């Protein structure tokens, strides 16, 4: 199709690697710009869009179908490179969130609008001349958005997003109140999966982990009490349900330390939406009410069962 050829020509003019001058990458650019086959480039837009929406647009506008399981291919072959080149930006949501979206940067949008016009040469020259500074600019935005957090005495940073915001509150607000002097054995990040992972201590405690096992979002350990806190940070998925408890019990069948299961929420409204899915004999912590805990049944407020 003519429009796909045009998009490939545009990418070639922008000096992207040959692998990113493919039909797939051209279609991704067209989907991000929301351009139909007969649209002029001046009609380009940069609304926030998911990879699912990209696939849907390509199918509807260009009659080309990519299976849902090709999302990772699109991420690796197009999205990843376009973001590194400052062609696109993301909205800072957790990567596993259904709200994670991309859009063309303002500079890239202006560039697309000028394609096939008398201004293309000068606009392209300006873009390429400032390319490295643009990349650095968008990288600095990401760095500024990162949230500093002190874990086990070390200064680290979480990527932006509600899930990591809640994990930060667990470390800084929950732990001092309800797990004093605890060591963080594990905490993930939405971008850097294993931000902290003390495999030596986890193994010593008896964890049996495979590549397919999913650890809780945060694991805290109090050595003098021999207590382990398994904490799930819930903003959209993943509370301490009976099924999740069973998975964790199987993973830790050789662990003799006392196990405490906690589901953490940012606010009471989110807690209410998950209340029916929570397992009995677990703890609830709500960041909006940091000094209080909710215990589901039993004669103890907090302690290993």
Secondary structure: helix percent: 40-55%
Percent strand: 15-25%
* 3D shape: elongated
Q: Unreliable stretches, pLDDT < 50, 5 or more residues? A: none
Distance between the termini: 65 Å
Quaternary organisation of the protein chains: single chain
Computed CA radius of gyration, to the nearest angstrom: 24 Å
Largest sheet: 7 strands, mixed
Average the pLDDT over all residues and give the rounded result. 86
| Number of H/I helices | 11
Could you state the order of secondary-structure elements as H and E? Answer: HHHHEEHHHEEHEEHEEHEHEE
Going across the major beta sheet, what is the strand order? 6-5-7-8-9-10-11
Structural class: alpha+beta
How many strands?
A: 11
Give a written overview of the molecule:
With 305 residues, this protein is an alpha+beta fold. Helices cover 41% and strands 18% of the residues. It has 11 helices and 11 strands. The chain has helices at residues 2-13, 23-33, 51-62, 71-84, 106-114, 120-129, 131-145, 162-178, 199-205, 242-251, 268-274, and strands at 88-90, 102-104, 147-151, 154-158, 183-188, 194-197, 218-222, 227-234, 258-265, 283-286, 293-295. It has a 7-stranded mixed β-sheet with strand order 6-5-7-8-9-10-11, sandwiched between helices. It is elongated, with a radius of gyration of 24 Å. The N and C termini lie far apart (65 Å). The mean pLDDT is 86.
